[in-house]
Amino acid sequence: MADAFLPKKKSLTKEDIKRLRESLPKKVEISSEGTKITEQNEDVTDVAPVLESHSDEISVPLSAEEIHAFQIYASMLKEKNKVMNLTAVDDNKGIAMKHFIDSLTLCPYVRAEEEKKNSKKLTFIDVGTGAGFPGLPVKISCPELNVTLMDSLDKRLKFLDEVITALGLADCSTVHSRAEDAGRNKKHREKYDIVTARAVARLSVLAEYCLPLVKVGGVFLAMKAHSEEEEKEAAKAIALLGGTIEKTDAFKLPGTDMERAIIVVRKIRPTPARFPRKAGTPSKTPLV
Questions:
Q1: Do 196 and 262 form a contact (C-beta atoms < 8 A)?
Q2: What band does 6 get if pLDDT is binned at 50, 70 and 90?
Q3: In this structure, what are the phi and psi dihedrals at residue 274, rounded to the nearest 5 degrees?
Q4: Helix (H) or strand (E) holding 14
Q5: Residue 8 in 3-state DSSP?
C-alpha cells in the first residue's frame, strides 16, 4: 500500500461502537419527497465492528463520526436496493468489506497526492461510480477532497444525491454523463487531480475513459482484481493517452482471500485531442 501522511484519529473502543449502535437510525425511507429516517427494530450496525477491525489494516483509521456516516450510508443502500438494483452485495459484512473497506484502500494514495502537491484541496472524480464506490467512502474518510461522482444512469445519481444530503457532505456532487462524453467536455477534460474507476473493464478501456479527465501531473488510480496481464496489454494505450504506469500495489483485501491491485498511472503529457473516441468505441475496439 502507498505510504501517506494520515491525520491521527482516535481508535474506536467497544463503548464507542455501543454508542454508535444506540444512536444509529434503524431505517431510512427514500421517496420522491426526500429521505426520512425512522426508528425501527432492524439492526444494520454490524458495519461498525467490521470497519473498526479492518480499517487500521489498510492504514485508514476511522473516527466515530466517520463510522456513523458509513452506518447511515449502509442503511440507505440496503433500503434503496429493495426497489432498485444498486448492488448484489447487500448484507452488512459484505457491504462493509467489499464496498467500504475495498473503497477505502484508495485513501493512502489520496493522502500521498495531497502531500506531493502540498494541498488538501484536490479535485477527485469517480468514473462509473454506480452506488457510490469508491468515491463516497473516500469522501467520508477524506472530507477535504472536492469529489465528483460520475455515472451514466440518472437513477443511481438521484440516490447518491440523497446520501450526500443525508450525510451533509460539502464539495461533493454528481454528474450524469458517459465517460467518453465527459472526456470531450471542456468542463471536465483535464480538470481533475485524481481520477479513479472501480470497474470490470480492461485497463486499456479504463485508461481511455479516465486519462482524458486527469490534469497533467495528476494521477489515474485504477482499481483491479488482477493487473499484471492487463498492464502489459495496456502499456501502449496508456502511453498514447499521455500516461505512464508509476507503480502497482497488489494485496489481499483484509480478512478475505480476495486479490486486489491499485495501479498508479501518472499523467505526464496532455491527451491527444482525438481521445476519448466516441461513446461505445473504447469498449468495442480497445486501444492496443
A1: no
A2: very low
A3: -75, -5
A4: helix 14-23
A5: coil
* Per-residue pLDDT tens over the stretch 216-263: 999 999 999 877 889 999 999 999 999 999 999 999 998 889 999 999
Q: Strands 192-198 and 123-127: what pairing?
A: parallel
Residue partners of 218: CB distance under 8 A and separation at least 6 = 113, 192, 193, 194, 195, 266, 267
Type of residue found at 188: H
Backbone angles phi, psi at 186, to 5 degrees: -60, -25
How many CB atoms are closer than 10 A to CB 16? 17
Backbone CA torsion sign across 269, 265, 287, 138: negative
146 contacts 124 by C-beta, under 8 angstroms: yes
And the C-alpha cell for 244? 505512464
**Do the strands 192-198 and 214-224 form a parallel or antiparallel pair, or are they unpaired?**
parallel
Nearest to 92 by CA among 59, 41, 45, 137: 45
Angle between helices 64-81 and 154-167 (to 10 degrees): 150
pLDDT tens digit sequence for 107-145: 999 999 999 999 999 999 999 999 999 999 999 999 999
Residue 1 has pLDDT above 50, yes or no: yes
Handedness of CA 118, 137, 254, 12 (dihedral sign): positive
pLDDT digits (tens, 9 = 90+) for 163-172: 999 999 999 9
Q: 212 in helix, strand or coil?
A: helix
Q: Which residues 6+ apart lie within 8 Å of 261 measured at CB?
A: 223, 224, 225, 226, 227, 248, 249, 250, 251
Q: Rounded to two decimals, what is the model's pTM? A: 0.86
Q: How far apart are CA 82 and CA 97, in angstroms?
A: 20
